[in-house]
Amino acid sequence: MKLTNISAILIAAALGSAALLAQEPGAMQGMDKQKHREMMPMHEKMMDEQKKQDAEIDKLVAEMNAATGEKRVDAIVAVVNKLIEQRKAMHQEMAAHLDK
After folding, report:
1. Is the dihedral of CA 49, 53, 58, 59 positive or negative?
2. Between 93 and 6, where is the model more confident?
3. Residue 18: inside a domain, yes or no?
4. Could you tell me which residue, 76 or 98, shows the higher pLDDT?
5. Which of 3, 7, 29, 39 is the S-S candidate for 76 at Cβ 3.0 to 4.6 Å?
6. Are residues 4 and 72 in contact, defined by beta-carbon separation less than 8 angstroms?
7. What would the DSSP string read from start to end of the chain?
8. Which pLDDT tens digit goes with each residue over 34-57?
């Protein structure tokens, strides 16, 4: 039970921090409309990728919530590993865009 509570807290913290980091107030201020139009395909691609990642996490979380005993621990590990994988991929993508 204690492991489940700790795991839930870790997952909630990871999701919460990702949402906070994704928010950048005023990022679009000062950008002209042409530049904004040029960036729209990239934004749409990013949103599609986020939806795909959310679906992967939703599936794993559903499996985790349905699991019991030792399988539940394995399911928690799968969720945490997927979150880490997605976060690293996000950082690589961001670094690639900053290098351009």
Report:
1. positive
2. 93
3. no
4. 76
5. 7
6. yes
7. -HHHHHHHHHHHHHHHHHHHHH--TTTTTT--HHHHHHHHHHHHHHHHHHHHHHHHHHHHHHHHHH--HHHHHHHHHHHHHHHHHHHHHHHHHHHHHHH-
8. 888 888 888 898 899 999 999 999
Is 63 a domain residue?
A: yes
* Burial readout 42-69 (b: 16 or more C-beta within 10 A, e: otherwise): eeeeeeeeeeebeeebeebbeebeeeee
Asked whether residue 25 is domain-assigned, the answer is no
Number of separate domains in the chain: 1
What pTM was computed for the model?
0.60
Among candidate residues 40, 56, 55, 53, the one with its CA nearest the CA of residue 90? 53
